[in-house]
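Q: Given only this backbone (421 positions), what sequence would you predict?
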């Protein structure tokens, strides 16, 4: 069978292509004007837009089901609890986890990483021990481990990358000495779009008895994730980047590890019994979900996953690959433009600089035309330092973006050159 990629997608009959026009109708915000122009939303790596079904799920919960979960015996509480736990099982299937108890609801990827650092990390890292991260990490994947190392006397080690934005796997293997307690690496870079060979990296670490935590914030919205096939020990992603609400995220952890870890926070719902002398903690996942959770947002995330998985995923991925190809080919010939990141495997994201023009100025000109473009260091200052630039302009795509929107971006970049060049 011919693999379905950007080239075969373009050659396919219209009936076998991704129906982006139909999909766009599901996203109310894409119908609005910005500065008198149709909104062109190219900031999906920062946060994605929400389909109508997610908005309706939030409204339905607050209108018809609003109650606290787990502790009530009345009808609304039982209904809310059932919906909340149904959302957990939905995430389990989305990630192909073994059991729903391995799914912990958190506020987002950042909280998930801090949870692991402050529970697994503090119970395992001793003076002289090491945590391995990569040179392309977001601060949420750097700062918690720095804080852990400072508190415990550990050391942070960094996997280098080449000029294309690919990690140097030989160097990675050399870093994995007997003092390494955890590898924490991004599945997909938010600044470069690099898709790391995480399955291979996990196998190499596991051969040395080292667990691996993957930041999937940029991967889960665009690629199918199977945590059992990857064999990762922890996996995280954020709802708001996965077409769901803000304020909700996921930590997946292998049950055996979660059961050994101490709680992250104390409070209601994470206890089995409490006296002034001692507390007995609840089993997972409740042990890590102290207090009233973000019930509505968990239900909204379920709706987002339902929507995403109703799409034809191979066609969706091929469409996003074609958007990346078109953007790369259309931007590359612009005089003075330099792409930052040309990894062998990428998702739908382009970062670039223009000679003599700050990325913020590019973003400002784009905004005048209704184009939402990210400009800055993208919370990845070490990446900017590695490539010798203060900031980049970043366009990141989702399945609802079009060729015409990319062409509008290219026109805005040309205008920026004319105005500031």
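A: Predicted residues:
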């Amino acid at each position: 069978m011919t693999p379905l990629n950007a080239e075969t997608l373009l050659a396919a009959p219209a009936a076998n292509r991704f129906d982006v026009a139909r999909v766009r109708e599901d996203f109310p915000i894409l119908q609005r004007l910005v500065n008198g122009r149709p909104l062109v939303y190219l900031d999906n790596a920062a946060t994605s837009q929400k389909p109508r079904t997610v908005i309706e799920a939030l409204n339905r919960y607050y209108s018809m089901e609003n109650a606290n979960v787990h502790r009530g015996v009345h009808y609304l509480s039982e209904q809310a609890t059932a919906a909340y736990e149904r959302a957990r099982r939905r995430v389990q299937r989305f990630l192909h986890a073994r059991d729903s108890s391995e799914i912990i609801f958190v506020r987002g990827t950042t909280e998930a990483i801090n949870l692991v650092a402050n529970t697994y990390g503090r119970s395992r890292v001793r003076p002289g021990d090491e945590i391995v991260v990569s040179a392309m990490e977001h601060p949420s994947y750097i700062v918690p481990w720095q804080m852990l190392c400072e508190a415990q006397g550990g050391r942070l080690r960094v996997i280098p990358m080449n000029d294309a934005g690919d990690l140097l796997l030989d160097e990675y293997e050399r870093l994995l000495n007997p003092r390494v307690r955890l590898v924490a690496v991004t599945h997909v870079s938010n600044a470069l779009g690099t898709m790391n060979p995480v399955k291979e990296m996990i196998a190499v670490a596991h051969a040395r008895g080292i667990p691996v935590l993957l930041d999937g914030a940029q991967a889960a919205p665009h690629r199918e994730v199977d945590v059992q096939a990857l064999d990762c020990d922890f996996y995280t992603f954020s709802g708001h980047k996965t077409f769901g609400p803000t304020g909700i995220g996921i930590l997946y952890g292998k049950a055996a590890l979660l059961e050994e870890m101490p709680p992250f926070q104390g409070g209601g719902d994470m206890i089995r019994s409490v006296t002034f002398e001692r507390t007995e903690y609840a089993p997972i996942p409740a042990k890590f979900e102290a207090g009233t959770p973000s019930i509505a947002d968990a239900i909204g995330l379920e709706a987002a996953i339902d929507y995403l998985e109703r799409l034809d995923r191979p066609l969706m991925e091929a469409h996003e690959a074609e958007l990346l190809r078109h953007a790369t080919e259309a931007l590359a010939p612009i005089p003075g433009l330099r792409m930052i990141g040309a990894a062998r495997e990428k998702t739908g994201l382009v970062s670039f600089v223009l000679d003599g023009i700050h990325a913020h100025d590019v973003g400002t000109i784009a905004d005048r035309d209704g184009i939402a473009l990210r400009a800055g260091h993208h919370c990845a200052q070490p990446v900017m330092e590695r490539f010798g630039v203060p900031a980049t302009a970043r366009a990141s795509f989702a399945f609802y973006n079009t060729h015409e929107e990319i062409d509008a971006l290219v026109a805005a970049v040309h205008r920026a050159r004319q105005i500031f060049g």
